[in-house]
Amino acid sequence: MLTLFHHPLYASCRFVRLTFGEYGEEIALIEERPWARRKEFLSLNPAGTIPVLLAEGDHVIVGATVIGEYLDETRGAYKREKRLMAEDSIARAEIRRLVDWYLVKTDGDVTRHLVRERALKPLMGGEGGGAPDSAAIRAARANVRQHLKYTNYLAATRDWLAGPRLSYADVAAAASLSVLDYLGEIEWAEYPAARDWYSRMKSRPSFRSLLSDRVRGLSPASLYADLDF
């Protein structure tokens, strides 16, 4: 069984977990605290970042999008209509654009800051912890609305976020927004199309392991695991 070094509140790690779930494969999970810079982990990835996949033959694959491409080549190419990457080059470009949007831009504007300030700092102690930065939280919350408006637009104008079928774009968006959903940072009633799309994603079997996630010291929002939220 393949092994994923991850943290439950990193959108990039959730992206990989959802991808494995969509392809019907189980993976062993090792929760990693990258701020601790554990020597054994650094020997796998000197950059100290997650996710890291220990693949067949104990080959190390680093980074969400790199792991995604690896899984597309080794699993997705054989899944036909269940493949998460399109065959057409233009459609592939749109999928990659949206994966980057959610795993890089949304993460940089919103998710990373809320996770760090609300969930991780209490766990980090002398390794970068401390009191939450209220200014960082306010700035991230101010950015949430624009990302939800954009998701709402995509969901209202397309069958799935990147086009006519489920793709890596939906997986990346669901991974990112599920973290914010865990933290209770989304007012879903304001974004009906996004809410309907997220409900479809949340109801998929691949999502079950994410809905069981719990982080020490921070319980999920009351409707996090509710499929009829």
From TrEMBL:
Domain GST N-terminal: 1-79
Ranges where the GST C-terminal domain occurs: 88-221
InterPro entries linked: Glutathione-S-Trfase_C-like, Glutathione-S-Trfase_C_sf, Glutathione_S-Trfase, Glutathione_S-Trfase_N, GST_C, Thioredoxin-like_sf
SUPFAM superfamilies according to UniProt: GST C-terminal domain-like (SSF47616), Thioredoxin-like (SSF52833)
CDD domains: GST_C_family, GST_N_family
Assembly description: Homodimer.
Name of the protein in its database record: Glutathione S-transferase family protein
Species this protein is from: Chelativorans salis
